[in-house]
């Protein structure tokens, strides 16, 4: 296999200090011959940026001085700075990470073998499903056309739900444990390998309000929707299991975010 030039990158901010060491050290030991590590800090001041620069060697740390106030918009800004850096420095792929997702050492080799436009590994998170706290895969597939027709025959769906692609379901436990590759609507976007053909065309963007409907949005949804509209295929490789350090973020007393674990 040809060696590709890969940028392993993540946005971060000072709330993520609790997992910085485990995260960055996990990136440093990825088993691949040609990759760089980029961390983009969008904290409100320079303290965390200076801390990262002084503590971690042999990685690239840049400051995102975005003026955006909303956290999701700050995150989108940093994702796009990662894309800009990758294009300016001629990388073939971006492994787009979240700074609380710990990848296995073989993540790049395995995801490259998948040879897809966009392909992620897999991690889990806590979700409120039918009023029950559920630990579920962070990857969603669409209903089949047959399943969609059956549901449509039984209930009146909102007008914005026009096809089976407008409804999504989590990967099942059987799928998650199969170590197979699945085409998905939304992958585990915090460990997602993106080809240059994709990120040279598409930036991260907040999902347009006319398209949101009742879809819970995140920083990745607009990017993935636009990728799919442009004909790029999106996959999840369930062989690559990543550790998700989500609990530490929402345990912090000063953190203003809510999560099903701590509601």
Fold-level CATH name: Spore Coat Polysaccharide Biosynthesis Protein SpsA, Chain A
The rounded distance between the terminal residues' Cα atoms is 48 Å
* Rg (CA only): 18 Å
Helices and strands, in order, run as EHEHEHEEHEEEEHEHEEHHHEEH
CATH architecture descriptor text: Alpha-Beta Complex
Helix fraction, binned, reads: 25-40%
* CATH H-tier superfamily: Spore Coat Polysaccharide Biosynthesis Protein SpsA, Chain A
Spatial order of the strands in the main sheet? 3-2-1-4-12-6-13-11
Q: What structural category do the secondary elements indicate?
A: alpha/beta
Q: What is the molecular shape?
A: globular
Overall pLDDT level: 89
Provide a brief overview of the structure:
The chain is 31% helix and 25% strand.
List strands and helices in order, with pairings.
Layout: E1 6-12, H1 20-28, E2 35-41, H2 47-55, E3 60-63, H3 71-88, E4 93-97, E5 101-102, H4 107-114, E6 118-122, E7 124-129, E8 132-137, E9 140-142, H5 145-154, E10 168-170, H6 173-176, E11 181-183, E12 191-195, H7 196-199, H8 209-212, H9 221-229, E13 234-241, E14 243-244, H10 246-251
Parallel strand pairs: 1-2, 1-4, 2-3, 6-13
Antiparallel strand pairs: 4-12, 5-14, 6-12, 7-8, 9-10, 11-13
Describe the structure.
31% of the residues lie in helices and 25% in strands. The protein has 263 residues and is an alpha/beta fold. The chain has a single domain (6-251), classed as Spore Coat Polysaccharide Biosynthesis Protein SpsA, Chain A. The strands form 4 sheets. It has an 8-stranded mixed beta sheet with strand order 3-2-1-4-12-6-13-11, sandwiched between helices. Strand 2 (35-41), helix 2 (47-55) and strand 3 form a beta-alpha-beta unit. The longest helix has 18 residues, at 71-88. It is globular. The termini are far apart.
């Amino acid at each position: 296999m040809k060696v590709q030039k890969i940028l392993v990158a993540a946005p971060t901010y000072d709330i993520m200090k609790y997992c910085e060491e485990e995260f960055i050290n996990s990136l440093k030991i990825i088993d691949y011959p040609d990759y760089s590590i980029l961390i983009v800090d969008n904290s409100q001041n320079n303290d965390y940026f200076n801390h990262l620069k002084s503590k971690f060697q042999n990685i690239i740390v840049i400051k995102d001085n975005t003026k955006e106030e909303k956290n999701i918009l700050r995150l989108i800004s940093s994702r796009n700075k990662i894309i800009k850096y990758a294009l300016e420095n001629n990388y073939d792929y971006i492994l787009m990470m979240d700074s609380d997702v710990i990848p296995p050492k073989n993540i790049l080799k395995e995801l490259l073998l998948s040879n897809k436009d966009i392909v992620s590994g897999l991690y889990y998170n806590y979700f409120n499903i039918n009023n029950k706290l559920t630990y579920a895969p962070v990857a969603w597939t669409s209903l089949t056309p047959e399943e969609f027709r059956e549901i449509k025959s039984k209930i009146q769906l909102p007008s914005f739900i026009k096809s089976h692609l407008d409804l999504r379901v989590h990967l099942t436990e059987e799928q998650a444990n199969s170590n197979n590759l699945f085409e998905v609507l939304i992958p585990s976007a915090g460990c997602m390998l993106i080809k240059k053909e994709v990120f040279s065309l598409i930036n991260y963007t907040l999902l347009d309000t006319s398209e949101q409907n009742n879809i819970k949005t995140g920083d990745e949804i607009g990017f993935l929707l636009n990728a799919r509209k442009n004909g790029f295929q999106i996959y999840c490789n369930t062989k690559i299991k990543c550790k998700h350090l989500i609990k530490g973020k929402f345990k912090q007393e000063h953190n203003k975010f809510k999560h099903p674990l701590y509601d």
